[in-house]
Amino acid sequence: MDGFLIILWLVRIAFLLLIYAFLFAVVRVLLRDLRAASRGPAELGRLTVLASPRGEPQPGASYPLDAVTHLGRDVNNGIVLDDPFASAEHAILTYRGRNWYIEDLASTNGTYVNGVPVEGLGPLGFGDEVQVGEIRFRLDRGRG
Amino acid sequence: MSVAAARPFAGFRIRPRPRTTELLLLALVALTLVVGGASLGATQQVREAVRTGVELKAFDFTPPDARGLLIYLAALLGVHLAFVLAGRRTDQVLLPTAAMLGGIGLLLMQRLPQDLVTQSFGGTELGLGQLQLAWLLVALTVITALALFVRSDAWLRTYKYTWAAAGIGLLLLVFVFGSDVNGARLSLSIGPISGQPSELLKVILVVFLAGYLSENRALLADESTRIGPISLPPLPYLAPMVAMWAIALGIVVVQRDLGAALLFFAVFLGLLYVATGRPSYVIGGLLLFVAGAFVLYNLFGHVHARVDNWLDPWADPQGSGFQVVQALYAFGRGGILGVGLGAGLPLIGGRLPVPAVHTDYPLAALGEELGLVGLLAVLGLYLVLVSRGLRIAAAGHDEFRSLLAAGLALVVGVQAFIIAAGNLKLIPLTGITLPFISYGGSSLLANALVVGLLMALSDRGAEPPPAPRDPRRRFRRIRLGKARA
Question: ipTM for the complex?
């Protein structure tokens, strides 16, 4: 009987400890989640205007980028390019997986990455320079 | 053949997604409940042996209702599998936490005298534990349905005034047709089904408030009217606040339901603060509430009796103060580690010391049998639910979803606080249930609605699309092209 009671006491304490183990596990999940949230949502990237002779976009301006950003002369683009060499729908910047890509939308005068014309879809690294007509951009890392 | 033709039911494609965190937490829940059940079964046998004087021969750790416990655990696994198959990226902590609370409640109900509540279905008599199990299964079904199928919140957002009207209609229905329980007009019977609409009402209230506040948030946060040193928002937008106050007091007067009134008003003030960020509202609301409570205290006997009971239960320890005093004794007997599941609550003169232990006083029973340590753990579980809800609110796409999540989290937290504080004689006792633990279909269903909606709101949407296939090759071609040129 006494041995039984001791085991019973241990089982009782084990029950309490298990509830705390559960709480501990849950709090760990919550903390991990909070840490991840405090890091993000970081910006995916920024596009800094290096040169823009006609003032649209403003030279020196820096645009935070969405996962998909349209560039072109048309006012419906995310970033409007006022340049006679830009097409209405000129190019798309997309963020997929962990990388940036630039896609030239069969524009008349082409899109250049570091001076190289883009054929269809090409990857874009942080620090790369994009040129459309006389407008030059640089892809920068997002802030925060 | 096109892709669309190959998959005629594009909406019903099964894309399983593993939910490891949830599975691990649920496994921990299962282990805990099995150990708890073993402790409960063994304790009951020891007590039986001591009572009858028969020497125990073998160690037996079978839970008192092993089949019920297994059904519950299997149902949890089933819900988890349904979530995995559905593949939505919803919260993985809410279900295990609610399951833990529900499981502790189930163990408690299996431990209490089974004839406390009985209901017979087609000749089979179901006791307290079995009824609670049945309601828990229904609640799990509700959680699953909401978490799987609620994808849009438009049906909540668009019809907020309809919901509010339905809520007020429900209130009137209870007022006209309701029956009295312990001096409070709470329950409504339609045919064989009876329920407490105020439990449902709290969810409706949150939906309405979230809709109203998200629409008028900017106006409410504005300070355009100045009366002396106090600046107020445009007066017409104060109307719902005053109306809310009137409804809360009306519930006290008409339904004599102090708990629901307190809960509604506290949730209302909390949401108002969340939406506007102005503490002056909360202070003003509290002052209004105190003033109203003071008037009610002097005008109405039942409020008076409750408060007097709280101030000095020892004035009539065998009569009106009996429950409060016995609950305090139970907490005292529990001490730090408790007397063990199944070892508490000695009958006094053939009756339970706390008659409403399964609805209003489950915390007293837990406090006695699991002690301060167990009580703190249970309160910690509620804290987890609330923090998770607020986290979902913070991540909400828009204001309605944020306010809805915050309000749902607040409802559970405030309700647990009110009844826990009432049990511990911190505030006057109000007859509301302890979420997920108390016996009762309405309570379990309403809280299942809360958790199900929170899970649906926590959906993080589709995964970001995978990277395109091998773009480097194309790039290399560009490079080569230049070199050739």
Answer: 0.84
